[in-house]
């Protein structure tokens, strides 16, 4: 009989082997060419990594959040572009369907998502509605048994590569007072007439992950493809973002961990003044701080995961984990470049890519400033 710990160890080892063999050797080339390796995502799906926390009754693995974060960290250490596609899919669309989908929606969408047959994404932000997401303007209008969607979404992960997108639009009257209560969520297959993924963004980092604006032009969708209740879409999005922020925490830890591993190896081999630079106290102190912050970020993310598995509210802890891990990833990769010196600034050395990949973790799924607002509100109420 396998214990939960045994299963966790097996899943994490499988993720580590997959990352080492199928992702890490190709990550630099994918980055250079902005190539999205859909075949690799499909392989992850076949192994169950796109349905890690989905209940077994819906063809998922039914694993706990800690196991999911550990596996995601392994993928992120190899290439955070792959990790973000895996993380978005597992966290936001999956969470929304599990909590608020009808049985028919779960049968049609959630099961193939869990099996890896469908890759899902999420579209909330707009050009003028980033941190203030509730001010979005994309509109859905009821027309008989259908809804007709119009508008433009921005910075959507998997916009041009997903099979299915969870899209937040307004369903209140166009002249109504704009606010969170007038937003609803729709399940939109990306082959729907009227759905257009724009040119992929030319990004600083995560270049193998597809990010693009989405144009909705008279996109007609059956009413049964609204998720949950009308007007509750913003609430569902925030629930999904709680889970998503845990994933960003694991992504930040994976990036920081990899930067530390590379730095330790380099500092043991690189010689100056006739000895390895790892023997210099200034270098040792820097490495010690990098290791400590990485471990602290991991512990905070795992604490939030434990609360989630216990059925407790995680909004504050997810924000803490995302904030600390993202800033840790940025700080650790900055130190790694400093330790590598001139080589660290060159694209021939992998710490340069880690630095570029780390930056966006402080921005997407809620900037560091937004996380601090969430945390500050919570501790003031405590």
Average pLDDT confidence is: 95
Are there runs of 5+ residues with pLDDT below 50, and where?
Answer: none
Radius of gyration from CA coordinates: 21 Å
Count of helical segments?
Answer: 11
Instruction: Work out the number of β strands.
Output: 10
What's the helix-strand series? Answer: HHHHHHEEEEEEEEHEEHHHH
In spatial order, strands of the major sheet run 1-4-5-8
Distance between the termini: 43 Å
Strand residues, percent: 5-15%
Describe the largest sheet: 4 strands, mixed
What structural category arises from helix and sheet content? alpha+beta
> Quick one: overall form?
globular
The helix content, as a percent range, equals 40-55%
Give the helix/strand layout.
Elements: H1 4-23, H2 27-33, H3 38-46, H4 65-78, H5 80-100, H6 103-115, E1 120-123, E2 139-143, E3 146-157, E4 164-170, E5 183-189, E6 195-197, E7 211-222, E8 226-227, H7 233-269, E9 271-272, E10 275-276, H8 281-309, H9 315-340, H10 351-359, H11 368-381
Parallel strand pairs: 1-4
Antiparallel strand pairs: 2-3, 3-7, 4-5, 5-8, 6-7, 9-10
Helix pairs in contact: 1-4, 4-5, 4-7, 5-6, 5-7, 7-8, 7-9, 7-10, 8-9, 9-10, 9-11
In short:
The chain has 382 residues and is α+β, with helices and mostly antiparallel strands.
